[in-house]
Amino acid sequence: MGARVALPTIRAVTDPAAPAPTPEGVAHPRTIRSFVRRAGRTTTGQARALEDLGPRFVAPYRAEPLDFAAAFGREAPTILEIGFGMGDATAHIAALMPDTNFLCCEVHEPGVGALLKRVGEQQLQNIRIVAHDAVEVLRHMVPEASLAGVHIFFPDPWHKLRHNKRRLVQPPLVALLASRLRPGGYVHCATDWEPYAQQMLEVLGAEPALRNTADGFAPRPHYRPETKFERRGLRLGHGVWDVVFTRR
């Protein structure tokens, strides 16, 4: 067995309570982080996956550019996923796109363990996990113009108006994402909260380096699976909105 991988029990959303960052010339009054603290229980199966598969599939955070070819053992297009929850969609997409590498950020230990468990069960080879704040990963580990795509699925919507500033998809992050995308690379966001969907559309639309692939919201791309939660919401008349922009 490999060494136990120790991870904090925190999950991908945002944390406004820290001093301001300075991402590549973008000023912002508060640091955007991709997580808040959250309690959670790691199951026996998840803990075993962390111990057995963590040393191979969890890449340590380092404040230096990550060599994708070395990390994945091959040259292939790389997609970054921010906040994969329990990894259901991530594993589905990775299995559907075996010729693509997936660099996945999530700091919630049960989620990391759950995705590693799926990696083992499905014998997935194209996933690497960085159990660290995705914004710092983007700033320090992801080289400029290196990503084929970015997935941000169902981030915390922060429903109350006074909390909207805590949302992850804001101009500083979008500018940072755009700088890490290669020409033709894409950003795909999805949410089931319409006001956040509108904000995503506006913020991504205001970034000059990006262009919308649709006239407004995009049809759900074939690779993003429809979750049980999503199907239930659609039956109840709730919507789900996809926003897909590409790098000019």
Automatic annotation (TrEMBL):
Protein family according to the UniProt entry: Belongs to the class I-like SAM-binding methyltransferase superfamily. TrmB family.
Keyword Methyltransferase: yes
Protein function: Catalyzes the formation of N(7)-methylguanine at position 46 (m7G46) in tRNA.
Pfam families: Methyltransf_4 (PF02390)
SUPFAM superfamilies, A to Z: S-adenosyl-L-methionine-dependent methyltransferases
Pathway given in the UniProt record: tRNA modification; N(7)-methylguanine-tRNA biosynthesis
Catalyzed chemical reaction(s): guanosine(46) in tRNA + S-adenosyl-L-methionine = N(7)-methylguanosine(46) in tRNA + S-adenosyl-L-homocysteine
Residues annotated as binding substrate: K160, D192, T227, K228, F229, E230
UniProt xrefs under HAMAP family: tRNA_methyltr_TrmB (MF_01057)
The protein's Enzyme Commission number: 2.1.1.33
Coiled coil: none
Alphabetized UniProt keyword annotations: Methyltransferase, S-adenosyl-L-methionine, Transferase, tRNA processing
InterPro entries: SAM-dependent_MTases_sf, tRNA_(Gua-N-7)_MeTrfase_Trmb, tRNA_methyltr_TrmB_bact
Gene Ontology cellular component list: tRNA methyltransferase complex
Organism: Ramlibacter algicola
Domain of life of the native organism: Bacteria
Protein's recorded name: tRNA (guanine-N(7)-)-methyltransferase
Lipid metabolism listed as a keyword: no
Positions that bind S-adenosyl-L-methionine: E81, E106, D133, D156
Region (Interaction with RNA): 162-167
PROSITE patterns per UniProt: SAM_MT_TRMB (PS51625)
Example of a GO MF term: tRNA (guanine(46)-N7)-methyltransferase activity
Segments passing through the bilayer: none
